[in-house]
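Quick board copy: two proteins, each given as sequence then C-alpha cells.
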Amino acid sequence: MVKIVHMADTHLGYREGKGTINKWAIPNYSKPYEQTIYDAFKKIMEDISKIKDLDFLVHCGDMFHIPHLNNPHPPPEPARRVLKNVLDTFFENTDNQVPIIYVEGNHGVFRGYEYTPFESHFTKKEYSNLYYFKERDLLNAIKSNNPLNLEFLDKKVRFYLFPYFEFNSFETYKSAYDSWIGNQRPPEDDDFINIAVAHGSKIDGTLHKKVRSDDFGYDYIALGHEHILKEETKNRYYAGCLLPLNFKEIYQNQGYIVVNIDNNTKNLEIEKIYSDSLLKRPFEVIEIKISPQDSLIDLTNSINEVLNEYISDGGFDPITSARLKLNFIGEMTFEKNWQINDLMSKIRRDTFSKADKFNILQLIWHISDISELIEDEIGPGIVQDYILDKPEEEFKIFVEEKLRDDKSQFNIDKLTKFGMEAIKKALKIMDKEKEV
C-alpha cells in the first residue's frame, strides 16, 4: 500500500484588502487573516508529518499568494519564514523519509524569471527530499520533447508533473503542448503506480483534456487551482484550499486528502480531511432587505442591528474578529443606491475607529436591485405593445422627424420598411432568448 497526502492552494501571504481594518496580528509583522492561514498551515503540516506510514506529500501549486499576474512583488517575509519553519519541522518529524513534491501554480510565480520564491529563501541543497517543478521545467521538457516525471524505484511510484501553463494563450503554445503531452503517457503493462500532479482547470482551459479525461490511465490525478475539495471522477480530485479566502468560498469544502493506493490492484481508498473547522472567526454574508420607502433612519437601524451582534467586551481580537459582507436586496433607485454607499462608508469608518468596541476585521457590501429581475420578466411583445400602438405609422413619423433638417434625398417609405423589419427581427430574437 502506498499512502499519499494531496494538498494544494495554501496561498501563504494572502491578505484580504478591501474594507479591512488596519490592525496587525503580530505588530509590524503579519495581518490578521494572513496569520490565520499561517497558523492553519503549520497545524495541518504538523498533523500530516505524524501520519503513520506516509510515503509522499504532494502539493498541487499556489503555495504562496503572490507574486501573480497582477502583482509582481515577492511573498511577504512572514510567508517565506513560515514555509521554511514548516519544512524544517516536517522533515525532522519524518526523519527526512517522506518526499514533498510540488508543482507551481499561477500564484507564486515570477513571470518571465528563471526562479521561484522557493529559491529566493532557501536552496534545494537544504532539503534533499523536496522536489519542485516550475513553468521553466515544463518548457524545457517541451523543447527537448522529454517527459516531465519523477520516479521512486524503491516504492515503484512515478509522478507525472504538470506545472501551471497557459498553453491555450497562443496557437504555437497549444500546438507544442499537444505534440509534447504524449510523453506523459505511462508505459503499457507497467507495474508502477502512476500519479499525475497538475495545477489547472477545465474552466479556464489550463488543464489539458488528456489529463482531465484521463486518457493516459493514471492511477490517481492530484489537482490544484479550484479552491474546493471535491471528487471529479473516482480517481481525480481537487484538494481545495485549507481555509476559505473569500465570501464565495465559505459555502465550499476546504481541506486535504489522504490517498491509499493498493500496489497490486491499484484500488484507491480516499479519506477527505476538512480543515475549514480550524477557522475561529465568523465569516458571513448577511442579507438586508430594503424598499424605496425606507428612510435613512430605517436603513441605519437595519445595519446597526446586524453590527451590534459583533460588539465585544474585549474589543478587536485578530483571531476571532469577523469578516462581514452585507447584501442589500430590494427595488433600488439611484438615490437609494447612493444613500446606501454613503451610509455604509460612514458606518465602516465609525466602526473601525472603535476597535475597543467592535470585533470586526472586514466590512464590505453589495447592492442587488431586484427591479432588474422584474424588468427581465417583461415579454418583448408587451414591450412592443407598450411603446407603439401603431408601430409602422409611429416609426414613419419618427423617421420624418429625424430627417427634417437633412438635405439628402431619402426614401422615407423604404427606410420605414427596413426599420420595422429590423425591429421585428430584434423582438423575435428577444423572444427566443426568454425561452432559453
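And the next:
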Amino acid sequence: MERSVALDLYGRPVPLNLPWWVWNMFGEQGVFLLTRGGGK
C-alpha cells in the first residue's frame, strides 16, 4: 500500500493526521493506492 485516504459521507478527505486504523471511526469510504510486490 503506497497511499491511502479516508473519505467522509460526501466524498471529501477526512482531515485527520492520525494512524490509518483510526480513520475507520471517522471515514465512510477508503481509497488505497496499491502496487505489486516483487522488488524494483
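Board note added afterward: The chain has a mean pLDDT of 81.
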